[in-house]
Amino acid sequence: MIDKNKSLIKSEKNIFLKFINFVKNLFWKKTTSNKNVDKEFEIKNVMKNKENSYLKLEEEKSLDSSNFDEKEQFFKLYSDVKSHNVKMSELSPSDLIKFNSIIKEEVKLKKKKIINQNEILRILTKEIDEINVKNNV
User: Fold this and answer.
1) Which of 124, 120, 87, 81 lies closest to 103, judged by CA?
2) Buried b (16+ CB within 10 A) or exposed e, 98-121
3) Rounded-to-integer distance, Cα 62 and Cα 56, Å
4) pLDDT in tens, 35-72
5) Distance between alpha carbon 129 and the CA centroid of its chain, in Å?
6) Sign for the pseudo-dihedral over CA of 62, 67, 69, 72
7) Which of 6, 35, 96, 102 is the most exposed place for a label (fewest CB within 10 A)?
8) Residues 77, 87 contacting (CB under 8 angstroms)
9) Alpha-helical regions (H) of 83-92
């Protein structure tokens, strides 16, 4: 056969190319059907995860309420100790450890606050000095 475009390469559809294309199409269809199965599997997993997360959330809510009561009692005790209504010697060792950690955090926060205030004070004094210099000139 002579190519009408007079190109050097001729591509004719032969039986081998048809067979290869048939096999490719056959496998391609199978992968798409597998994708559908995978999607269904994923949907089922998502539903199970949602149910499990809901159950976990229910458990956490029940635990949070008990923790909240415990925290509330502890902070009430803490405020009583700070107001000198309860003596530190009457506290249990576990409460003393908790008090110690809370007091350490309070000290850290107060130090940060003092540092910030000192920085603000330094900046303000510098601005006041600059204004005084401008007014004298």
Assistant:
1) 81
2) ebeeeeeeeeeeeeeeeeeeeeee
3) 10
4) 555 666 666 666 666 666 666 666 666 655 666 778 88
5) 47
6) negative
7) 6
8) no
9) none
Helices (H), the chain: 15-82, 93-136
Beta-carbon contacts of residue 96 (< 8 Å; ≥ 6 apart) = 88
> Model-level pTM?
0.43
pLDDT digits (tens, 9 = 90+) for 69-125: 788 888 888 888 888 888 888 888 888 888 888 889 999 999 999 999 999 999 999
Q: Which two three-digit tokens encode residue 90?
A: 């009457």
98 close to 75: Cβ distance less than 8 angstroms: no
Tokens 């601005």 locate to 127
pLDDT of res. 118: 94
CA distance 24 to 8: 28
Residue 79 to residue 94: CA distance in whole angstroms:
17
Question: Do the beta carbons of residue 99 and residue 91 sit within 8 Å?
Answer: yes
The token pair that represents 123 in the structure block: 């900046």
First to last CA, the chain: 103
